[in-house]
Structures are given as C-alpha cells and as structure tokens.
Sequence to fold (540 residues):
Amino acid sequence: MKPPSRRTLSALLAGLLGAACGESGKAPPNPLVAVPPPAPAPAPAPTVNVILILVDTLRADALLDPEHKYDTPNLDRLAQEGVPFPRVFSAAPMTLPSHMSLFSSRPVLETKVFNNGQNVPTSLPLLADWLSGHGYHSRAVLSLGTLNPLDAQESPSRGFASYDYNYWDISLAEKTEERLLASLAQRDTAKPLFLFAHFSDPHEPYEAHGTELRHVQLRLDGEPLAELRSSDMEQWTQTVQLTEGRNVFEFQSPEKGAAKFRVRRFECRENGQALPLVWEEAKEMSPVASARVVVDRGARAPGACEVRAWINDVPATNDVRRTRYALEVAYVDRYIGELLAELERLGLYQDSLVLFTSDHGEALGEHKFFGHVEYLTDELIHVPLIVKLPRGDARKPALVAAAGKVVSHIDLVPTVLEVVGLPPLPGQRGQSLFTPHDTLHIAQTSRPEATRRGNQLAFRDERFKLIYYADEERFELYDLEQDPLELTDVFAERKGERAAWPEQLFKLYQHSQERTGLGNGDDREEREKMLRALGYGGEE
Fold:
C-alpha cells in the first residue's frame, strides 16, 4: 500500500471520528494543517468551576473492582454523587501523549505528541488555554516529571496561570495534597476556576506504605554516610565535603538475602553543576544488591557537593499484583478525599463540574507483562471515569444513558465545554457525552519508549479491537465480547467483519510518522535522565 495523500488522510480521520467538532454545520478542520486557534468567540461569562482530578496509571478495575481488591471509599462516594463510566479508553499508554490527547480532544497521531519528553506543538489548542481565554483562572498541581514544562511555549503548561511542579521527578500524594491546598488558597476568586489536580501514586515504583521496612546503606570512601529507606520512596539530599581525586559512593542492601533495590537517580552538584559520574558497579535503574559510583574531581581542591539520591526496593511481582498496587490505590484515595473535603469547605464542590479519570492503566501480569507503554491491550488503556455535574444541572439522565457505551478520552473536552457553555475547542475530534454517538476509539504507542513490539496503532469499538503492529507489518484482531482478555487473535478468520479497518489503520499510521523531536543538548539529556528514573527510556 502506498502512503495516501494529505487530503485523503484528512478526510479519513474526519469520516472515522465524525464531523461533530468545530462549529455546527461546518466541515471539520484539516488535521494535517497546523492552524492557530481563533480568537475566543463572544459568549456569556462562565460561572461553573471545572475540577479535573487525574490519577496517573490507575486501572479501570480499581473502581469497577469486581473482586473487591481496592479500598477507595472517597472515590466510591464521588461515583455515587456523579456518574461512573465503566468503558472509557485513553489514547495512549503513556503519560504525556495521553494527556495531550485528552486536553486537545484529538488522537495522538494528530497531536504529534508520541512520547514522553517531547515538546508540545504551539499550534495544538489545549483546554486550559481555551478556558483561560474565556475568563477562567486555570491552576495545575503536578506529580510526575513527564508533565513538567521543559519549554516555555511548547509545553503542557500553556494556559495555566499557575503550574506547580515543585518536586524531583515524582511526588507522593501527601506532598501533592499540600501543594494543592496552597494552590487553592491562591486562586483568583473573582473568576471561575479550572483546577487540574494530578496524582501519580500507583505509578511504579510501588511503595509498601509501611507494611514492609527495607533499607539501603550508603557509604562515602568506606565511611557510613546514610541509611536510606527503600521500601517507601525516599528522595534523599545532603551536602557533603568531597576530596580531590576519586570519591567513591557505595550502596549496599543489608537485608537478609541481599534484597534488591534500584538507584533511580543519583546526582552530585557542585556550584549548581552536576559532576560527571562513573558507575563502576551496576548502574542507575539496574535491580541490584550493591552498586558503586565514582565522582572524580581531579586536582580540584576539596569542596562541598550536594548529593541527591532516590532509592527504591524491587518487590516480587506477586507482591505487586496482590498487595502493593492496591496499597498505592488506597493511599491516593485518602488524599483525594482530603481534596474533595477542602473543595467542600471552600464552597467549590457542589457548584463545580468534577471529573475524575486516569491517563492510562497498568498491566499487573496480564500478557506476561508488568507496567505500561508497551502494548495497546485493554489493561493498559482502559481507565476509570466519573463525571459529577454542578448543582442544578438536570442532564444527569443523559450521562447515565451514555455510561454503558464505549467512551474515548477525546470526548471529555467537548463535554466540559458544553457544561460550562463555551464554544468548542478548535479542531476538537471528540463529541459531548450528552450527544448519543457510537465511538471508534483510536489508541497509539510508539518507539523509542515502546520497545517490545514497537510502533502500534489500534481501533476499538463496542465489539472488536484491531491492532496494527507497524514494525512487523501485521494485524491482530480480537473479539472483545467473546475474548475480553485479548488472548485469541482472530484476524485471519474474521477480518471481514471489520473489512475497512486494516486499510484505514495503515493510512493513519503513515500520517503519524511526521514526528516532533525530544529537544537537543543539555535539555534533552535532562529529559532522558528523568524518563529513565521513572522507568521509561527505550531504544533510540
């Protein structure tokens, strides 16, 4: 098959996702032409607050919970007061691509944000920017480095009056909650609020939350320097005096059986500059019982160095599946409850549109895999969604009617804008949940982070999922009604039941090859360090 023309691709995407984006009665915008967003259209001053709470890496079954494995009383209460959607799917099993799809109401192949660590095109309209342009005061509190603004313009922070990323790579819910309360106290009370509250505690590394206690001993030139907790995250910082020449830092597990750990990040900063490191035993992110790293200062006189270390243990896979992931979910639920209580105390809860979701799921042994990024199976893209309407909005029955259908993340922005009474986001591809429609969901994952089976693009509807493995030039088809665990590929026998899909997927994938970069120089190096510490970073 030859790559299609640009016009053909534009028509294909519009036809697949419907023409419900843009202004009513007009053709959808060309997704292949970057058009700056138009000036906001005149509209009544908005009054409804919008609260978006997102928990990174939260599986859908943490709320559906058919086996009663998860303790989520605060989210259960929110679900009772709102409308839970049991069949919602994200655009990518990666944080930044999924968020940019959600916030732009476009599939990944159109946002051009394929991996964590990329810049966000300035031509991509985003919800916070649109709301701020219509009178909202937009605030965000983040908890994962993949959402940090790495460029002032080409950034997920665009449109936010406050974008709090005051942490090192990842933030525990307790600390995130403290920053959320401080951010709410600084809001502009003369304007309606858009709050983006981001938690990431189910994201690996999976903490023990006090149920186990493991340590790693740190020595400098053979002398004890610190004992670091590894069973629960400790991002340790201390200023030490280094000599000229070699300075040797050694990490050792003292536990019986030499329990393994990972040195996720290690830095030694002198006068604000990171000194070169030589790993003589093991390396960052390797599962080890001991590690050794050397800082060689050459002939420089002794000086002070700020040492920063992030250590975590390596729990057994059965412990992750049976206890640790569930402990993470219960932990973050507690702090979501505190946030909801603060919103009530401030008088912001009842009259707000509150949405709760996740950016992607997490495999806990399904398909012999733990984690995310690598596949488009449902455990990685099936996410929870709760929508609580503001007091006085009588459209809850319409949401209940839509709740049983397949829903895409790209439908959230149109829903928000309909509730608050604002014009559609330029170029949006989703449709409001108040508008009955059948969803063809598009999901995507990409190299360099997806290394196992490489670049993938998928269609999913109520019955079937078709995955195109581009690097292998092959398709897999799953009947999700008969085979919800996606164990049996029926493409050879039943591809005729979705006969148009293979060619459509191929065409869309060809379009998606127009990439944006990861940046250059020092900026790129820092991005790669952060991604590696968070468990990302594949082949170049």
User: Anything to note?
Assistant: The first strand starts at residue 49 and ends at 55. DSSP finds 14 helices and 25 strands in the chain. The CA atoms of residues 101 and 111 lie 7 Å apart.
